[in-house]
Each structure stands twice: as C-alpha cells, then as structure tokens.
Amino acid sequence: MSSPSDPSTGAATRAPQGGAPGPSAFRTAGSFLVSRVQQIGIFIALVVIVLLFQGLTGGRLLTAGNVANIIVQNSYILILAIGMVMVIIAGHIDLSVGSVAAFVGAATGVMVVQWGWPWWLAIVVGIVLGAVVGAWQGFWVAVVGIPAFIVTLAGMLIFRGLTQITLGNTQITPFPTEYRQLGGGYLFPELFPASTSPAEWITVGLGLLTLVLFLGSQLRGRGKRIKLGVEGEPAWWFWTRTGFGALLIVLLTYLLGIAEGSRGTPIVLIVLGILVVTYSIVMQRTRFGRHIYAVGGNRHAADLSGIRSKRIDFMLFVNMGMLAALAGIVFTGRLNSAGPGAGNLFELDAIAAAFIGGAAVQGGIGTVVGAITGGLIMGVLNNGMSLMGVSTDYQQFIKGMVLLLAVAFDVYNKRRARSLG
What we know:
Elements: H1 23-35, H2 37-56, H3 64-89, H4 97-114, H5 119-144, H6 148-167, H7 177-184, H8 198-228, H9 235-257, H10 267-285, H11 287-297, H12 299-304, H13 309-335, H14 346-356, H15 368-387, H16 392-420
C-alpha cells in the first residue's frame, strides 16, 4: 500500500507500525485544518447550533414539519444572500434589497389582483422589473461612480416610497393559488391526503438524484484537479467533506419524504437548489465569477489586467435586482399579501448571512455555499429561539452578537495570516 503524501510538499509520510498516525501526519492534518479554519468553522457552527437547539427544544427542531418551515420561512433571505455575497465579494454593499423586494411584490400584486393578469406573466414581469431596478442602481455605481452604499441607501428610501405609492398604503390580498405555491407550496400537494402518498416517493427520488449528482460532481472535480496537478486538499479531508454533504442530503430527504409529519418537497427548495448550483458554477468556473473575485481583491490591479470592472459592477447590481425581485415574489406568495411594510430589514439579514458565511468585509473572499450556510445559521437561531419562547428583543440581541463575532473572527484570521506571512 502506498504512503499518503504531504499536500504541501508531495513527500510521502508513513504511519508507524500498528496503524497509529505519526507526528508528521498530525502536523499535516493540523496545518491543513488551520488553513481552512474559517470555511470549516462555519459548517461546524451550523452543526453545533442545530444540535444545541435540538436538545434545548426537546427534539422539536428536527421534526419533519419544522425543517420544512425553516426552509420556507427563510427562503427569501437565502435568495437575497446569494446575490448579496456576490456584491460583497466585489467590494460593495446593497442596502436596498428589502425595499426592492417589497416594491416588486406590490407591483405583481397590482398586476395579478387588480389588473387580472395571469400569475405567470406577473412573475416574469416582476423579475424584469427587478432587473430594471438593478440597472438603475448599477448605472449610478458603475457609470457615475457614486459609492454603492450611498446609491443603495437612496434606493432603500426610493423603492420603499414607491411601494407605498403603488399600494396606496393598503394591503393587496388574496393572491391566486398558483402564485402562492412558489412561496409556500409543495410538489404535488393533491397527493398528500393519502397515508402512503406517491409524493413521498417523489421526494425520496429527488433526494437520491441529488445525492448521485452531488457525489458525481465531487468525484469528477477531484479527478480533474488530480489530473491537472492542482489538488489542494488531502484525500482524508475530501472524503470527510463529501461524506458530510451526502449525510446532510440523506437526512433532509428522510425528514421531507419519509419521517412522520412530512409534507414532501417545498417548491421553493427546488428553486433554491437550482440557484445555489447555478451561482456556484458561475462563481467558481466562469470568467465572470473569476473577475468578480479579482475586482474585489484588488480593483486597480484588475483594471490594469484588462478586466472591465465597471461592467462587472453594473451586471452585479442587475443580478441583485433580479434576485431581490424573486425574493419579493416568494415572500408575497408565502404571506398571500402585499403590504407597505414588507421586506423590512431583509437587507440586514442578507448581509449578516453573507458575513457569517465567510465573506470578507474588504471584499475578494466569499462563497455562495458559505452565504447559504450563514443564512441557515440565522434561520435556525430564529426558529430555535422561537420554539423556546425567547422574546424578539433577545433574539435581535443574540443575532447581532453572532454577526459581530463572525466579522471579528474574519478580522482575526486576516491579522494572523499577515503576521505569519
């Protein structure tokens, strides 16, 4: 049997007889874990928080119905977090996403309820409206050169005002069933009254398909990296990480499709899955994604290398506007109501999700998966504290402390890296 190799030097390290790893193996594992402490720490934090609240709530957190509720209740924040982390990686911030989500929700409400448009046409027009809003803000940031903080702060006020004007300071309700399904519906709900519903097997089938695709992509990616000689992680960590991801998929499949009280797959979970996969590919494997990291890491150097940073900024805000519109439609459909106060503080939750998920304050660092993980941490905190009966004032205090500690952890890691360098 060949000896494992040191990922930093390629030299072989051999365990002593008896199968126990030697000091060199511990040093290799330890140095690797230290280099990945921020990424690993986010997932460990999520697991610890889930286990903590599972115990504190007497096992109510990980029931089938509550897991589905966590997904549905936080879906719009997770959608916003995907776009927000891209904006933050490029060195910007967007304070207007909550108001944009409310505005698009109000506009689609007028289209569907008052004007009688088909629900699908209203959703399409709403997404286009979000893109137009993003282009408006991107123009001021990329072309005029006004800092994104100021532009989006103004946008927060502008689109909150437009929301109130559109609604006339009243609520619009009810929405068609098809519109509401995007925010709170489940796949094939008509099958669920039966005790042995085929929808359970559909959910299990989707879970197994997701598992196969996940394992295939992980193995294929590692094979390509090894072939090119750019593999940056040892085999033991690859299998640990992949096994953990597979276990999460199996657990979620069981809770949504087999466990007592399961209602099947939320439609918004399918939407989230598509968004996470698509944007992860964009950020990791496309030139546009690499340029976002380059602009956030060093804008001046990116400009000198020929990257059109203004175009990147413009497209990022168009994308953020579209995702804010989608989040607004999901939220409106879930509540079955479009109101003047919708989307309040959404931007803060999305920003918190991105930073807790590992995005750097200075830009240039962050991942879509990390932002989703950060959003889930916030969602589990909210849900767990609500199950325990913790008042909202204490919930806000605890969430604020979590955000502060996450950013402090990022700053500490950067200082430590500079001192070691």
